[in-house]
Amino acid sequence: MTRVTINFAEVEGGFEAVPEGTYTCVIEKVECRESKSSENDYLNWEFKILDEGDASGQHLWMITSLSPRALFRLKDVFEALDVLDDEMNLDFDDDVEITPTAGPRMLEPDVEGLECIVVVKNEVYEGKERNRVNEVRPVKTARRASSNGGETSSRSRPAPKATKQSGRRALR
């Protein structure tokens, strides 16, 4: 029998909320997930803080509902990221099933790696302070972060219009 001894005496629990404020972030990933409370799926956005300081490298999350009545928020985000078009299809990786805890990554519009400004507000949920991304704003010149921590060229073009492909989920 193998035994592992773990000392939890100095282990702190969970994510520490970052202070309210405005942060420069990179979009790490966007997944489509199944809502537990409605029939509409939603997009789960994951951001990584790029600013120097204590919050550097921390992750933030945001949800944008795909409910027709809530699309104004997704429209605002796409506009801030300079990928908004009058009519858009959202394409997702078809190799992953949509569940409440995970889902396929959004392929189009391609927003992963884009930098943006996020406005963070804090709220108390189940007795703990939590971050809420209240707004996404454009950076003065949109940049796509590279995998080595640098940046690549400016992004001045809107994302190509996504088309529905066989085996891919799309939202019109």
Sheet of most strands: 5 strands, antiparallel
Q: β content, as a range?
A: 35-45%
Order of helices and strands: EEEHEEEEEE
Write down the CATH topology. OB fold (Dihydrolipoamide Acetyltransferase, E2P)
Identify the overall geometry: globular
Give the proportion of residues in helices. Answer: under 10%
Instruction: Note the gap between the termini.
Output: 56 Å
Structural class label: mainly beta
Give the name of the CATH architecture. Beta Barrel
Q: Tell me, what is the CATH class?
A: Mainly Beta
Question: Number of helical runs?
Answer: 1
Average pLDDT confidence is 84
Low-confidence stretches: 151-172
Strand order of the largest sheet: 3-2-1-6-7
Q: Care to count the β-strands?
A: 9
Count of separate structural domains? 1
What integer value in Å does the Rg equal? 18 Å
